[in-house]
Amino acid sequence: MLFDNEKFYTVLARPVIIVTTVSSEGKVNAAPFSFCSPISFSPPLFGFSCNPAHDTWANIQETEEFVVNVASYELGDYMHILEQKFPRGVNELEKAGLKELPSRHVVPPRVEKCLAWIECKLVKDLTIEMGDHIWVVGEVVCVEVDDECWDGVIRADKLLLHISGKYFAQEAKVTKYKRAN
Ligand SMILES: Cc1cc2nc3c(=O)[nH]c(=O)nc-3n(C[C@H](O)[C@H](O)[C@H](O)COP(=O)(O)O)c2cc1C
In a 10 Å sphere around its CB, with 0-12 CB exposed, 13-18 middle and 19+ buried, how is residue 101 labelled? Predict the structure, then answer.
């Protein structure tokens, strides 16, 4: 069936990340994102697409650090709180009753119940003139995975994926296929 072009992203299931940042005053912010991707091996770079009106973007401009918290499906029930537009300075993790964990190389905290944590320092932000989001690029300065969520590869059965709106996917299965090398 032919589809509404502006809904193109709903034909892809994307991993949910919670991006944590701090303002110049040290106030913590957390918000879910799913327009995201690794973009370089060496140096290791990670990108995500952020609406410029978001507090996340305001904080990144001020302090140039963020943590990509890879969400587990256990966090599905928290999305409706984390995605709310609270006034700037309100900590969504407190609103959701989620614990902060200390990061190793950046100031923004990690979030509990996540599978992995990717600590990043801003290297670039790209505005596509005709687009409505900013592509935020960070250099990965530390990455850590919860031992229980690692089985040679990330435990895909624990990932939370986003489709659109209230629709998420979970319980993905790891399968090994033949590769050329
Ligand atoms: C699962 C999920 C994925 C989302 N993905 C994005 C995204 O990729 N880019 C974006 O700008 N907003 C995204 N949002 C919306 C933001 O999380 C939401 O607008 C939030 O209030 C922004 O918070 P902030 O102003 O504290 O940064 C997503 C929301 C949910 C629930």
Answer: middle
